[in-house]
Amino acid sequence: MKATIDVPDALYRQVKARAALEGRAVREVTIELYRSWLEDPGAQVSGPIVPLSGAEWLARWDELGAETARKAVDPRPTSEIIISERR
Fold this sequence. Notes:
Order of helices and strands: HHHH
Largest sheet: none
Helix content: 55-70%
Low-confidence stretches: none
Shape: elongated
Radius of gyration: 21 Å
Number of strands: 0
C-alpha cells in the first residue's frame, strides 16, 4: 500500500542522510519503525524535533567535550602529547 505523509523538510533530510550513511532506503527505515512501534504498545511517540539555538548547540558541544576529557585515558592536552612524543 502506498501512503503519503507530510514530513518536515529538516527531519526528512536528517532521516535521509542517516539512512544513506547506513546504506539503507528511507522506505526500509520507515517500515522498521512502524513495526517496532506496533510491537511495543506502551511505546511513547515523541513530539516534534525542535532545532537547537546556536547557544544551546554550543553548550551541548561543550558538555560533550568535558565528558570526553573526563573519560580520556591520558589527561594531557593533545598538544602536550604530541610535543612529548617528538622527543
